[in-house]
Amino acid sequence: MDAKSTVAIEFVNVEFRLPEGKTLLSELNLAVERGETVMLLGRSGSGKTTSLKMINRLLRPTAGEVRVDGIPVTQWDAIKLRRGIGYAIQDVGLFPHYTVRENVALVPRLEQWDRGKIARRVEEVLTLVSLPSAEFADRYPHELSGGQRQRVGLARALAADPLILLMDEPFGALDPITRAELQREFKKLQEKLGKTVVFVTHDVGEALLLGNRIALMEDGKLRGVYRPEEFLDTADAAVQAYVDVFRAGQQMFRNKQLTEDLR
To answer: Does position 194 have pLDDT exceeding 70, yes or no?
Structure first.
């Protein structure tokens, strides 16, 4: 993939309809700049995951174009496209009969890297996600906690050093403390690596923490794109509803902390 392009991913008048005719996505126009993290925020059924899956051609638009490095994804070789894009999902999808090392090495091995290069890369990415190779590489997924499995999923997505990373609510199934830890770690990691990230979430706090921009989806359409500070300050009623929920949650947490401190 061409690292020199300014726009890494572009949706141009994209529509997606099911065979029976139901429209899940319409009139989507969105450009993702190289090196930025764009959060697709919205309720269930708003079109977030549908949009994400069209980037690596798991779904094909019924109208319009999705472009990666200026080339419609329909013109890419599907295997080459997917191997050049890291993909991390909520349920991780690790192979249970593979060790951590074998799971992380999967794409580099398919790309026919030599064994020494694969070994070095596995150790490098496990270190990046705070899973030292000496301790974790030979474990199996069932021997890991949920947070550790999610870290392995992220390491696997990064293993072939893709320029683009797609993340579909990767921390959504974790307990609040582990989720907060992984969010902070991912933010530091992204600041270091500078990948192009499209990240699906329904969590306003997560969107504000991790995103350079927030793309709000509603009923299969893009409501607007905002920088975090713009999202908090906009007068748009739909956005304000999300902000109100976020601030109410913050206040509830502060009240809980105050109550515990007074005990």
So the answer is: yes
pTM: 0.89
pLDDT of residue 254: 56
Query: Residue 261: its pLDDT value, please?
Result: 47
- Judge whether 128 and 165 are in contact, CB under 8 Å: no
- Adjacent-strand bridge partners of 89: 168
Which residues are within 8 A (CB) of 146 and not within 5 positions of it... i.e. 6 or more apart?
A: 173, 174, 175, 178
54: Cβ contacts below 8 Å, ≥ 6 apart:
11, 14, 16, 60, 61, 66, 73
Per residue in 26-46, pLDDT tens?
999 999 999 999 999 999 999
Mean pLDDT of 98-127: 95
Tell me how far CA of residue 220 lies from CA of 22, 38, 43, 104, in angstroms. Answer: 11, 17, 10, 34
Closest to 179 measured CA to CA, from 158, 206, 157: 206
**Domain definitions of the chain by residue range:** 1-84+167-172+195-258
The pLDDT of residue 174: 84
Per-residue pLDDT at 248: 79
C-alpha pair distances (Å), 191 with each of 148, 165, 184, 211: 21, 14, 11, 11
Q: Please give the CATH topology (third level) of the domain spanning 1-84+167-172+195-258.
A: Rossmann fold (3.40.50)
Helix (H) or strand (E) holding 63: strand 63-68
Residues near 24 by beta carbon (within 8 Å), at least 6 away in sequence: 16, 17, 18, 47, 50, 220
d(CA 203, CA 157): 22
Strands 63-68 and 71-72: antiparallel
Do residues 86 and 165 lie in contact, with contact meaning Cβ atoms separated by under 8 Å? Answer: yes
